[in-house]
Amino acid sequence: MRKQECVAMLLAGGQGSRLGALTRNIAKPAVAFGGKYRIIDFSLSNCTNSNINTVGVLTQYKPLLLNSYIGTGAAWDLDDAYGGVFVLPPYATEAGGQWYQGTADAIFQNIDFIDNYDPQYVLIISGDHLYKMDYSLMLEEHKQTGADLTISVMKVAWEDACRFGILTADEKHQIVKFSEKPKNPDSNLASMGIYMFNWKVLKEALIGDHQNSRSDHDFGKNVIPMLLNQGKRLCAYTFSGYWQDVGTIDSYYHTNMELLNPQSQFNIFEEDMRIFSNSNIYPPHYIGRGAVVENSLICNGSRILGDVKNSILSFEVSIEAGASVSDSILLPGASVKKGAQVFRTIVGEHAVVGEDAVCGNRKGQEITVIGDNQTVFKQQEGGSHE
């Protein structure tokens, strides 16, 4: 293996149980988003745009779709001869094998993979956040400050601070206090779960954490406080761009719908920091004579013969004549049969809304969810259908 200055480790094994039917059969990073993307596309694209060409993707929960989607990494220009993208599930050894026990344990179990590239720095990121970020700028600041660990941070609303790792930094951006999801936070400077480590420091910390039987083997709960107690130099890197964790149906729906607002801070049409995906193998979309499409994103392979308003249609979606879809998100392969009406609904992958069925409530604010591969035959008023 060729020595790399920086190796990225992408944590992509999360179930995302709060997304309900959307993650019943796939991991959260594999959930479709914004029509042509899957959530993991944003982190992989960030690596490409930051000139990081060696990425380990740590999978665990129902990884089949994620594994096949990533493939060789060519869609993100990560099929480098001297690096590349590697799917790293838990594996058995002579001492036995087990699932990843926490974020730190996931990296610990892949020390040999990182050592193969003998990096100076290791970037740890999550595969289930939506944002655009140039990690090379974070690495440059990490070098300049002489930090052992740099944590990317952003200010959050005070009422949300208890959901994050919260830190306090001095005027030189050095972290002096860190608390994981505190009940009474004394700061609203939140960790984004993006870490730039010196590899020697991280490796030593992982081994020490592994030997601690009382540890949860988690970066926020255990490793970061341990490094602070050891007097290591921890610094904060302030990020001012868009960042979102779509951890609930409500946040997933509204973040998708933001893409239809030309004034949204979350802009997928920018020429710089492009987001790449592995969904470019489909033919052009088709909008039939008499169909009406307003303020919507329509992806390749879709056939529209009915009406679509203020909605997002992923690839290979079918809307038959006489059907209407509004304020909704249709995931790959979804189908709406003739005469059906769909309001404020997330229609799962390869799900079917049958003839003359009604999904969602035109007047209410509730979001209806139809699970992957499910069929709705009759009128449905709100709620989830799995």
From TrEMBL:
Biological processes, Gene Ontology terms: glycogen biosynthetic process
UniProt pathway annotation: Glycan biosynthesis; glycogen biosynthesis
Domain Nucleotidyl transferase positions: 8-260
Nucleotidyltransferase as UniProt keyword: yes
EC number in record: 2.7.7.27
The keyword Nucleotidyltransferase is assigned to this record: yes
Keywords: ATP-binding, Carbohydrate metabolism, Glycogen biosynthesis, Glycogen metabolism, Nucleotide-binding, Nucleotidyltransferase, Transferase
Positions of the record's site feature: Could play a key role in the communication between the regulatory and the substrate sites: 60, 99
Residue ranges constituting the Glucose-1-phosphate adenylyltransferase/Bifunctional protein GlmU-like C-terminal hexapeptide domain according to the UniProt record: 289-363
Chain residues that bind alpha-D-glucose 1-phosphate: 100, 165, 180-181, 191
Molecular function in Gene Ontology: ATP binding; glucose-1-phosphate adenylyltransferase activity
One Pfam family named in its UniProt record: Hexapep_GlmU
Domain of life where this protein originates: Bacteria
Catalyzed chemical reaction(s): alpha-D-glucose 1-phosphate + ATP + H(+) = ADP-alpha-D-glucose + diphosphate
Subunit details: Homotetramer.
Role of this protein: Involved in the biosynthesis of ADP-glucose, a building block required for the elongation reactions to produce glycogen. Catalyzes the reaction between ATP and alpha-D-glucose 1-phosphate (G1P) to produce pyrophosphate and ADP-Glc.
Similarity comment: family membership: Belongs to the bacterial/plant glucose-1-phosphate adenylyltransferase family.
Protein name: Glucose-1-phosphate adenylyltransferase
Source organism of this protein record: Hominibacterium faecale
Gene (UniProt): glgC
